[in-house]
């Protein structure tokens, strides 16, 4: 991990990995301002899974977040048919939170350490035939229309990409996806995914 840097956070009910994409509808003033600032400065924000609380902040509820997330940048934006601002963000690098606090605007701020290894442009880890079944599974999942529309760039011969994309796409609980994001060893992550996929097959 590198030295600490301050970033704004966007708590969500989803887990994001590097090179993944997520479409968001922005309607709260604090996040409209955040998106505007990010577009002006070509900067991004951290996406973290909520442990407790709702995505929309209210006086009756408080947000609690997981300490590992993914820093993302806006790659597309538009006004939606419902009048809301729609943005598409792409994950760039994993981070771990050292400290976080609410700003005056209501947007969480955090001191984070970015991963030196788990990021877009990370050194490739080539695969062998032992992973052919997981590669085939990922290709099948990618062919789903909702995934196809994201136009993901997937390197099927790279252990990082295989782990990231399967972790996002296989039908497991968000807390299980978070546990996969928390792992720093890509080999351990893929082994955990193999077990999860085997459990899903047994359940079916």
Summarize the structure.
This protein is α+β, with helices and mostly antiparallel strands and 204 residues long.
Cα-based radius of gyration, to the nearest Å: 17 Å
CATH superfamily of the largest domain: LON domain-like
CATH class group of the largest domain: Mainly Beta
Gap from first CA to last CA? 40 Å
Average pLDDT for all residues: 89
Q: Please, how many helices?
A: 6
Strand content: 25-35%
Structural class: alpha+beta
**Total number of beta strands:** 7
H/E topology pattern: EEHEEEEEHHHHH
CATH names the topology of the largest domain as Archaeosine Trna-guanine Transglycosylase, Chain: A, domain 4
Any idea how many domains?
2
Strand ordering within the main sheet = 1-3-5-6-7
Give the helix level as a range of percent: 25-40%
Shape: globular
Low-confidence stretches are none
| CATH architecture designation of the largest domain | Roll
Q: Largest sheet, if any? A: 5 strands, mixed, barrel
What descriptors fit this protein?
about 200 residues; alpha+beta; Archaeosine Trna-guanine Transglycosylase, Chain: A, domain 4; Methane Monooxygenase Hydroxylase, Chain G, domain 1; 2 domains; 5-stranded mixed barrel; about 35% strand
């Amino acid at each position: 991990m590198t030295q600490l840097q301050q970033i704004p956070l966007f708590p969500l009910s989803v887990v994001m990995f590097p090179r993944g994409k997520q479409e968001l509808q922005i309607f709260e003033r604090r996040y409209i301002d955040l998106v505007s600032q990010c577009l002006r400065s070509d900067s991004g924000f951290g996406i973290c899974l909520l442990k407790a609380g709702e995505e929309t902040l209210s006086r009756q509820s408080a947000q609690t977040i997981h300490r590992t997330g993914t820093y993302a940048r806006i790659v597309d934006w538009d006004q939606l048919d419902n009048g809301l601002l729609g943005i598409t963000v792409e994950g760039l690098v994993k981070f771990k939170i050292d400290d976080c606090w609410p700003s005056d605007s209501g947007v969480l701020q955090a001191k984070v350490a970015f991963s030196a290894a788990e990021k877009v442009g990370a050194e490739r880890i080539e695969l062998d035939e032992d992973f052919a079944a997981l590669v085939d599974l990922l290709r099948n999942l990618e062919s789903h229309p909702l995934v196809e529309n994201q136009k993901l760039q997937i390197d099927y011969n790279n252990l990082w990409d295989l782990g990231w994309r399967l972790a996002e796409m296989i039908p497991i609980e968000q807390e299980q996806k978070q546990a996969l994001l928390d792992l720093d060893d890509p080999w351990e992550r893929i082994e955990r995914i193999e077990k999860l996929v085997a459990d899903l097959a047994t359940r079916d």
